[in-house]
Design brief:
Elements lengths: L2 H27 L4 H4 L2 H23 L6 H28 L2 E7 L2 E6 L5 H5 L15 E4 L6 H10 L14 E2 L4 H7 L1 E2 H7 L4 H11 L6 E7 L5 E6 L5 E5 L5
Parallel strand pairs: 1-3, 2-6
Antiparallel strand pairs: 1-2, 3-4, 5-6, 6-7, 7-8
Helix pairs in contact: 1-3, 3-4
């Protein structure tokens, strides 16, 4: 077997694994368009770059028919082990950076990722469903400032260290029980269209698919680490209609 054939076989195997990783990210952990909101492109490029480039390239370099079978097996085993280790590490980074909650409070949503929450706060969640992080995509929840003075002070003081109310699972409540509050403060779509002239067709398509009239749909900002987006909701019931990768401010 030539080195080019060996490299091609390795590339084909790596590409197949890369495709499965991409499907897992886009279909389960990072549903569109939240992938861009949390900067998934950067992680994916590094992950697939290692998987698709370094392994097959190393095989192309070291593979030669002059080597003994035992030497080739050893070299390829080392390359495969290093590639698998790099893939596992990359997947762990992807897993811990995945979106887990979309938190509504006051007049906007916040996208919370797994690495923004600590185990102690998760364990304090009032509702059992929020005492573990979802594995199949983010869950919509509602939160508000606690009435307890001690808890209020804790939240306020934590903002100075960069931790805000949406990062306290102990105050999460089911979004379905409070979604009318989101509809009540939703902004008119005309404002979103002014901010995103090129996104008018995308907004109209989302409204059309909802079965509602444009006057019955509003939007709220979704704050995220890398890219803020817009969430369309029904004005009467606060039902989430769509998440659009549009500028909400």
């Amino acid at each position: 077997m030539s080195r080019w054939k060996a490299g091609l076989i390795h590339l084909t195997i790596s590409a197949s694994i890369g495709a499965m990783v991409l499907a897992l990210m886009l279909l389960v952990w990072y549903p569109q368009p939240l992938f861009a909101a949390v900067g998934g492109q950067q992680v994916l490029l590094i992950l697939l770059g290692v998987d698709l480039s370094l392994g097959p390239l190393a095989t192309l370099i070291i593979f030669t028919a002059k080597k003994s079978r035992r030497a080739l097996i050893f070299d390829l085993s080392v390359i495969g082990t290093l590639q698998v280790a790099a893939l596992i590490y990359g997947m762990s980074v992807v897993f811990h950076a995945r979106p887990v909650f979309v938190v509504f409070s006051k007049n906007s949503f916040d996208l919370v990722t797994a690495n923004m929450l600590n185990d102690e706060d998760i364990a304090k969640a009032k509702y059992p469903d929020y005492r573990h992080l979802p594995l199949t995509g983010p869950v919509y929840v509602y939160t508000e400032m606690p009435t307890n003075i001690k808890e209020q002070n804790e939240v306020v003081l934590s903002t100075f260290s960069g931790k805000d109310l949406p990062e306290y699972p102990q105050f999460y409540q089911p979004y379905a029980d409070h979604q009318t509050a989101a509809g009540a403060v939703a902004k008119p779509l005309a404002e979103l269209k002014k901010l995103n002239v090129d996104g008018t067709a995308e907004i109209d398509n989302a409204v059309r698919n909802s079965g509602l009239n444009e006057a019955d749909v509003g939007y709220l900002p979704l704050r995220a680490k890398y890219q803020d987006q817009a969430i369309l909701v029904g004005k009467s019931d606060g039902r989430v209609i769509a998440v659009l990768p549009l500028q909400p401010w």
